Amino acid sequence: MACGLDPLHMGQAPPHAVPVNLFALVGYVPDPLGAFLDSLRCKLVPGCRLRSHVSFLPPRPICSSGEQALNQISAAALYLPKFRIDIGQVEVFAETNVIYLGLSRGASEMHSFHDLFNSDALHFSEPFAYHPHITLAQKFPTVDLPRLRDIALLEWDRFRGERGFDAEVLTFVQNNLLPGFDTNGVPNNQWIDLAESRLTGRSLT
User: Fold this and answer.
1) CB under 8 Å, gap of 24 or more: what pairs does 105-114 form?
2) Of 3.30.390.10, 3.90.1140.10, 3.10.280.10, 3.40.50.720, which CATH number belongs to 18-198?
């Protein structure tokens, strides 16, 4: 089963990778919560390698250069403050059968960030309405949905750690094509970290 478009926490592209015009802006979930969610995702979708994240900007092509897009992100981060994200319950997107964790706190801030960044060099008309979340499983046979949802519900209920974190670093990532295809016949791809921007909360004036 494929992981889909999920950023991998890597600082450089592997050999023979070909960068493509597909970028995203994410916030990685720090450990120990992040490590637990990574493990859960691997249990639900075997073979996935990723670092759990929230997406401020879902994957998109851009009409400008990556440098222009990064400059836009960096400039905005100078006056945007960090904020708290608390995680809610296991849910499912009915249209796509994606199993995810909703947010009980921080969704309004993420909507504001999304609206701010989805402009100029980063503007894209997205196919789905923006919905802040943390993906747990996607691109699996529909027949497996009830079983995987039940596993996610059980494991999340058992988790006794802190169910939230401070969002204070934005990571700009780019997709890279790799040789070969996955088990579904989709070209192999990998997301690479390009740069980080820390939310400093300083005024531009």
Assistant:
1) 105/164, 106/132, 106/167, 107/132, 109/83, 109/167, 110/54, 110/56, 110/85, 110/167, 113/56, 113/80, 114/56, 114/57
2) 3.90.1140.10
